């Protein structure tokens, strides 16, 4: 029975005039309204309170579930493969794998390899790049969202996105041949003026030559900048317009709108984009392979140290991959990088979960 039928019911019917019960909005008794609602048709075969499951929904659900299971199994298979191939080499290792700085794998009967220096270089160069890239990416995202004129937004966004399409080996060549000589005066100045601080102390790398963590970190920051910027910009654009208009109506300036509305709304996306950039920095290979100069000196937590990251060390040792035992040493190092990536992702998810309003 339709709503129009309810409105056409006579006002003086039954209980309304007799004072029994309370009438409906148009004088229709409650019992009649209940009957009207009960007669509303429901989809054939669908239980009340449950969504209708059509064939397309079931197919899409099956595809999504299969994809999720496939990815989970694939990740587990990669982990199992790394462990399986690393165990034979680890069983022959004569030093502690996690605390040793040695890397001698030429003789499979006297192997001594550890990832301490590789791990520290990987963490320092990645964090240095992230610290440089995060504020720049945030500034670009805010500019594109709130301050940029309309005619500049799209071209500038394309230019930023194109940075992600440049091959890493090109970044490496540019960093080694162009960027390192250009920033040599800055590196020398930092070492001379701030050399008392451990990060800027003289390290194992050549400051004038440029093959240091300082140069590699700046180049790496440029490489991860588009990833962080793109994610942050897309989240900032989704800020509800009523919230922005309400802030403006209360007399807030443009910067106050950004500070009180846009940044709080998009902080989870900003952190997610930053962690995505950190993940790329941790696994970057070719650019660091070309820029960083290897050294036999122990790592001293200086930006002017040389060395190798886990990924670039694996690339440097490709000549030993013909032997399964020797290759197992590098696969063990890759396993450490695999676990480190998991830890970073888990930490990022924990931070984002704690930031939810």
UniProtKB/TrEMBL annotation:
Residues 33-43 have a biased composition (Polar residues). It is found in: Cell membrane. The chain crosses the membrane at residues 63-84, 118-144, 156-183, 195-228, 327-348. PROSITE patterns: ABC_TM1. Pfam families: BPD_transp_1. GO terms for molecular function: phosphate transmembrane transporter activity. Residues 119-348 form the ABC transmembrane type-1 domain. It comes from the Bacteria. Residues 1-52 are annotated as: Disordered. GO terms for biological process: phosphate ion transport. One of its GO terms (cellular component) is plasma membrane. Residues 16-26 have a biased composition (Gly residues). Keywords: Cell membrane, Membrane, Phosphate transport, Transmembrane, Transmembrane helix, Transport. It is a multi-pass membrane protein. Part of the binding-protein-dependent transport system for phosphate; probably responsible for the translocation of the substrate across the membrane. Belongs to the binding-protein-dependent transport system permease family. CysTW subfamily. This is Phosphate transport system permease protein. It comes from Rhodococcus opacus (strain B4).
């Amino acid at each position: 029975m339709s709503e129009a039928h309810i409105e056409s019911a006579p006002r003086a019917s039954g209980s309304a005039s007799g004072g029994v019960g309370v009438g409906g909005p148009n004088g229709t008794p409650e019992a009649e309204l209940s009957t009207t609602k009960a007669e509303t048709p429901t989809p054939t075969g669908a239980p009340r309170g449950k969504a209708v499951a059509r064939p397309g929904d079931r197919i899409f659900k099956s595809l999504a579930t299969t994809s999720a299971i496939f990815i989970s199994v694939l990740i587990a298979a990669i982990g199992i493969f790394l462990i399986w191939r690393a165990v034979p080499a680890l069983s022959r290792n004569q030093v502690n794998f996690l605390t040793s700085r040695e890397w001698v794998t030429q003789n499979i009967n006297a192997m001594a390899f550890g990832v301490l220096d590789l791990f520290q270089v990987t963490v320092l160069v990645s964090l240095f790049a992230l610290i440089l890239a995060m504020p720049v990416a945030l500034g670009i995202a805010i500019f594109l969202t709130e301050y940029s004129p309309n005619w500049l937004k799209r071209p500038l966004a394309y230019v930023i996105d194109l940075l992600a399409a440049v091959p890493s080996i090109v970044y490496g060549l540019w960093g080694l041949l162009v960027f390192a000589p250009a920033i040599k005066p800055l590196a020398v100045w930092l070492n001379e003026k701030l050399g008392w601080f451990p990060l800027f102390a003289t390290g194992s790398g050549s400051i004038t030559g440029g093959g240091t963590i300082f140069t590699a970190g700046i180049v790496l920051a440029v490489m991860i900048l588009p990833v962080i910027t793109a994610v942050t910009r897309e989240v900032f654009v989704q800020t509800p317009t009523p919230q922005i208009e309400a802030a403006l109506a209360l007399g807030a300036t443009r910067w106050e709108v950004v500070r009180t509305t846009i940044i709080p709304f998009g902080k989870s996306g900003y952190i997610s984009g930053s962690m995505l950039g950190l993940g790329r920095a941790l696994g970057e290979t070719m650019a660091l392979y070309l820029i960083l100069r290897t050294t036999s000196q122990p790592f001293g937590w200086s930006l002017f140290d040389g060395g190798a990251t886990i990924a670039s060390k694996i690339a440097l040792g490709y000549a030993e991959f013909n032997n399964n035992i020797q290759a197992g040493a590098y696969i063990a190092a890759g396993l450490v990088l695999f676990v480190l990536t998991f830890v970073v992702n888990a930490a990022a998810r924990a931070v984002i979960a704690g930031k939810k309003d």
